[in-house]
Automatic annotation (TrEMBL):
Pfam families membership: HATPase_c, HisKA, PAS_4
Gene Ontology molecular function: any one: phosphorelay sensor kinase activity
SUPFAM superfamilies: ATPase domain of HSP90 chaperone/DNA topoisomerase II/histidine kinase, Homodimeric domain of signal transducing histidine kinase, PYP-like sensor domain (PAS domain)
SMART domains: HATPase_c, HisKA
Location of the Histidine kinase domain: 494-709
Name recorded for this polypeptide: histidine kinase
Main location: membrane
PROSITE patterns referenced in this protein's UniProt entry, alphabetically: HAMP (PS50885), HIS_KIN (PS50109), PAC (PS50113)
Catalysed transformations (reactions): ATP + protein L-histidine = ADP + protein N-phospho-L-histidine
């Protein structure tokens, strides 16, 4: 029995170890044969990208040489005197490729940017275009040696003003170009830059086998690139993979050549016999490991089997010393003890989990009881809008049966003016999107149910890690309260409207008197009448503001929205208040983009907001200060901001600025209705208004308007 069990373990472990090695070799060989064309194409594509990149980089470096020389030649197309060496040095750029700048007249160097042996010498014929091969303005020469040290050079020649008279010659240091190219070489990849004569301007290889100036005209990719072609080639004689790209604007080109072995990956690339030997050694090692593992596992199991068989026959649990060595007995005992310990630990953890679940259930019950006992409606929802839980007070306020609302976005909410409210503009969505508490009044109109006015305050739900997973909202039914306020506002509106008519009549009568229709007036009488008219007009403005606010709050205001050029509207508003800025010696400016999309808005109401914000800024900015109006185009809307250099507003006072009849210390004059009315107008347009200020650093009042707003 012992021999058979060990033999079986040895056979199965050896088979399990050797088979994967053999399968790996077969699969690797098959994949290699199948994927060679695809890998070759990837190498060609990579070489093409590198050739294009090197050609573009060389064009960029040539531009660094060419641009200052062309500007110099352009500004001195018909020079009255020959440029000096100092003038030439000012025209040189600092790129390392730019070695010298020479002025040449009929091949003779007459001026140089640096002290050099070129002065007075004749340039090699290759450095300049021949009489029958002169381009319009720029010539890129083939390679030629330096007269100074024999270093390989090339030239960028610019007509000055034409090649028949003189030219500006920028000498290029090809050693610099060659050094820059070396980083692109690998043991299997070579890179060359060739001129129009197929000479190597630069060559990169590991190891280097071709010097600068070598003739590469026999190579097929070189022939192709010198004809201005761009593409890739598989060279049949060597199997190499080549890509080539011409240098724009020149007769030069870049050639990238890779050995065919670069497309071969895996263990068969270079050493098939070595790979076979490796597989054999791996198989032998696997067999040896299988033998050791079978001995390690089978011996204790066989001895454990003998112990269990002895136990079944009524023998003692303690085996004879010859059958079970102490080390093996410890190994099996550790396994048994580990299972016993694991069972005890799992039992303890299961009991702890049951207690934890019971505690969580109790806490959940308490939380549900607390939420249910709240008299206001409570709604907890996910970030997607799915309702998590709600109390019975909410269903009462919504006139719905419990659990009938699965997504809060299905609520038919309307804004204060009674317009349909897109779900993304509601406080429930804004609280989750902005990560801050939001509150607003909404109208809820369900078929067959009375109109309800709801005060909804929403806040984001954050997990300890800080991310937002949803929101919680408190919903109050303020219908009765708003009805009481409406009755009061109706009374105030009626009273205000009754005041408006006599005030308007008084202003007109005083105006007729001031015009002299009832007799001449002295200067003193005219001043008194002007003061009285101004007071009546301020009172009339207050009455108009009260009536407008009443219309907004009662939902009776109907906005006449039309596409509006906000830049032109803002400019006309600034023109209207420009007299006040001039009188107070203030700088008033407008910063707006060249193109701003039309904004759907009520021009008259928005004009009132802009003038109010700018007028406040002018009033509370000291003499010599600045008021800046800025327009910005955002993703889904337009933002207008008014920034001043006044006294600023304390943080604790800012929240009260947009409340009716409330004022900050810095804004201690006025009625306290202007900013409140601004808020009503902006919110009716679907926008938002806010203030940013610090004491002593001025204030910025801003609002944004959506580009896609529902019609009012």
């Amino acid at each position: 029995m012992v021999t058979r069990l060990r033999t079986q373990y040895l056979f199965f472990f050896a088979l399990a170890a050797v088979v994967p090695v053999l399968v790996l070799g077969i699969v690797e060989f098959s994949l290699l044969q199948r994927d060679v064309p695809e890998r070759e194409q990837r190498v060609l594509d990579e070489n093409q990208r590198l050739a294009d990149l090197l050609a573009a980089n060389l064009r960029y470096q040539l531009n660094l040489v060419l641009d200052p020389v062309q500007r110099a030649a352009g500004s001195s197309a018909a020079p009255t005197s020959r440029p000096t060496g100092g003038t030439l040095s000012q025209w040189m750029s600092t790129t390392p490729l730019f070695r010298h700048l020479l002025l040449v007249e009929r091949r003779r160097v007459v001026a140089s940017a640096r002290s050099t042996l070129w002065l007075g010498r004749l340039l090699p014929p290759a450095a300049l275009p021949g009489p029958g091969n002169r381009p319009a303005a720029v010539f890129y020469s083939p390679m030629f040696p330096s007269l100074y040290d024999g270093a390989p050079l090339a030239a960028v020649v610019v007509a000055f003003p034409d090649f028949s008279r003189s030219a500006l010659v920028g000498l290029l240091d090809l050693n610099v170009l060659d050094s820059q190219l070396q980083v692109q070489a690998t043991p299997t990849r070579r890179v060359a830059i060739v001129d129009q004569t197929a000479q190597a301007l630069a060559f990169a290889a590991q190891p280097r086998t071709v010097p600068i100036g070598a003739d590469l005209s026999r190579l097929a990719p070189v022939k192709a690139v010198l004809r201005g072609h761009r593409g890739t080639l598989r060279l049949p004689e060597s199997g190499d993979l080549a890509a080539f790209s011409p240098v724009s604007g020149t007769s030069w080109g870049v050639v990238v050549n890779s050995a065919a072995s670069e497309a071969l990956v895996g263990p068969f690339a270079n050493n098939l016999p070595g790979f076979g030997a490796g597989l054999g050694l791996t198989a032998l090692a696997a067999v040896g490991f299988a033998y050791w593992l079978s001995e390690r596992i089978s011996r204790p199991l066989q001895q454990l089997s003998e112990r269990m068989q002895g136990l079944a026959l009524g023998n003692s649990l303690d085996p004879p010393p010859t059958l079970l060595a102490p080390a093996t007995a410890l190994e099996v005992q550790v396994l048994i003890d580990s299972f016993r310990t694991m069972r005890q630990r799992i039992g303890s953890e299961a009991a702890a989990n049951r207690r934890l679940v019971a505690n969580l259930s109790a806490e959940k019950g308490k939380l549900e009881l607390i939420i249910e006992s709240i008299t206001e409606g409570v709604l907890v929802y996910e970030e997607s809008g799915q309702v998590i839980t709600a109390n019975s007070a909410l269903w009462t306020q919504l006139d719905s049966a419990p659990a009938t609302l699965t997504d809060w976005r299905a609520l038919p909410l309307r804004d204060a003016l009674g317009e349909t409210l897109p779900s993304e503009r509601s406080v429930l969505a804004r609280a989750v999107r902005l990560g801050s508490p939001e509150s607003a009044l909404y109208r809820l109109a369900r078929p067959g149910s009375p109109l309800r006015i709801l005060q909804i305050a929403a806040a984001p739900l954050r997990i300890p890690e800080g991310s937002i997973i949803g929101g919680v909202a408190i919903v109050r039914d303020v219908t009765a309260q708003k009805e009481s306020e409406r009755l009061r506002e109706d009374f105030v509106a009626t009273l205000t409207h009754d005041l408006r008519t006599p005030l308007l009549a008084a202003v007109q009568t005083l105006g007729f008197t001031l015009e002299g229709q009832y007799g001449p007036l002295s200067d003193g009488q005219q001043q008194i009448l002007l003061a009285v008219i101004e007071s009546h007009r301020e009172l009339l403005g207050l009455v108009e503001s009260l009536l407008t606010i009443y219309r907004y709050e009662a939902g009776r205001m109907r906005l006449r929205k039309e596409p509006t050029d906000l830049v032109a509207l803002t400019a006309s508003c600034l023109e209207e208040v420009g007299t006040l800025a001039t009188a107070r010696k203030l700088s008033l400016s407008l910063d707006a983009p060249n193109h701003l999309p039309p904004v759907p808005c009520d021009r008259q109401q928005l004009r009132r907001v802009i003038i109010n914000l700018v007028d406040n800024a002018l009033k509370f900015t000291p003499t010599g200060g600045r008021v800046e109006v800025r327009l910005l185009c955002q993703d889904a809307g337009v933002q207008l901001s008014v920034r001043d250099t006044g006294r600023g507003i304390a943080p604790e006072k800012q929240a009260a600025l947009f409340v009716r009849f409330a004022q900050a210390d810095s804004y201690s004059t006025g009625t306290g209705l202007g900013l409140y009315l601004c808020r009503q107008v902006i919110e009716a347009h679907g926008g938002r208004i806010w203030v940013e200020s610090e004491p002593g650093l001025g204030s910025t009042f801003a609002f944004d308007l959506p580009l896609n707003s529902p019609s009012g």
